[in-house]
Amino acid sequence: MAAPSAAQRVIIENCAIATVDANDTEYASGHIVVADNKIESIGAGKATEGLENVVRRIDGTGHLVTPGLINTHHHFYQWITRGLATDHNLFNWLVALYPTWSRIDESMVRVAAQGSLAMMARGGVTTAMDHHYVFPKGSGDLSGAIIGAARDMGVRFTLARGSMDRSEKDGGLPPDFAVETTEGALIATEETVNKHHDASFDAMTQVAVAPCSPFSISTELLREGAALGRRLGVRMHTHGSETVEEEKFCHELFGMGPTDYFESTGFLGEDVWMAHCVHMNDSDIEAFARTKTGVAHCPSSNARLAAGIARVPDMLKAGVPVGLGVDGTASNESGELHTELRNALLINRLGAHREAALDARQALRLGTFGGAQVLGRADSIGSLEPGKLADFVLWKIDGLGHSSIADPVTAIVFGAAAPVTASFVNGKQIVENNRLLFADEEAIARDARAEAQRLARITAQA
Ligand SMILES: [Zn+2]
């Protein structure tokens, strides 16, 4: 019988390191030892001499190493509907785009997922999520296409299987032809969890139950969705408190604000995270803190749709877990997450708290450990600590954009987007010098243009 093979080690040395652990431990010059897919050791100075099975040694001079960025809210399919309805608020923007979105098919969704993932991954995202909630009849295996795109690129991934069942005829926003039945949505969601969700420590694919938003789903779907998520032991996700119009909608239809409505249906809890949470009063924030419900803060999208400024400093102070989200690229055309670190910091300084709002390290924490918390994976990702999964990024900070900024974390948060020299997921390198190792960017760009044009054509002919 062959002896079990020993762990293969990769050593990264001579780099600044921001671990984002509980004490915000940092090293001006340190090392990380990766053994297979986990971090074995991390510390100041060089790695211990004489380690066995070292297959690669990386000189990190001129770099800051951080945990990989974690995206907590997105809609990949929107990659092929970017740059439309550019001067609309949320409700008008949705009504303008629903007819286009409801004509997507599997081929379009696959290419859009590749585009969304590629843009994030080459900018330092190691864990992505996609909240997909448009499932036109006969459109194929959309969930399979999205999950396959993430797997091929090597990105850790959560699919939030969304759904809509409240259309115009029921007082909702989407057109009647764009929604599923309540029962159909629940059955399909359960099938997706059973087929794709991996609960293990180093899972590359997880699935969450994710009815879309109060104005596109029935109360029954929200309530049954929460029950389904808890029965299956997976997380739940939705949009909430995004705009004043949504707040008004909830008061008119349900006689209460969005947070009270979610709580009344069981859709708050430590197994729930919610996108936006812009219009939250003190008691809403208290409810999130009490139930440990997470928040996906999407500053660029909130600005693009003139939704408002989420009270992130108050949420953090109250103990609410907060991560960052790109949101769909029809409301954040850049599709990048690293810029959200800076935008979270800047936008919150325009809010009620001014200069005391957030600092660079808090912004980095939102984009890393905060994301891991809201995705329910704080034990395995989000910080660089022995025993955690080897998901990390080498940011180049000795070039034109950053060399004159003394503090490395300030450099990558306040400065221009830092070049990604290398990005590792699960111990495997997926980006080298800002290029994806397992995807062809030019091919994706070409295919995305063709699919965007095909979708526009189909919509125009309908
Ligand atoms: Zn969204």
Automatic annotation (TrEMBL):
<protein>
    <submittedName>
        <fullName>8-oxoguanine deaminase</fullName>
    </submittedName>
</protein>
<dbReference type="Pfam" id="PF01979">
    <property type="entry name" value="Amidohydro_1"/>
</dbReference>
<dbReference type="GO" id="GO:0016810">
    <property type="term" value="F:hydrolase activity, acting on carbon-nitrogen (but not peptide) bonds"/>
</dbReference>
<keyword id="KW-0378">Hydrolase</keyword>
<dbReference type="InterPro" id="IPR050287">
    <property type="entry name" value="MTA/SAH_deaminase"/>
</dbReference>
<feature type="domain" description="Amidohydrolase-related">
    <location>
        <begin position="64"/>
        <end position="429"/>
    </location>
</feature>
<dbReference type="InterPro" id="IPR011059">
    <property type="entry name" value="Metal-dep_hydrolase_composite"/>
</dbReference>
<dbReference type="InterPro" id="IPR006680">
    <property type="entry name" value="Amidohydro-rel"/>
</dbReference>
<dbReference type="InterPro" id="IPR032466">
    <property type="entry name" value="Metal_Hydrolase"/>
</dbReference>
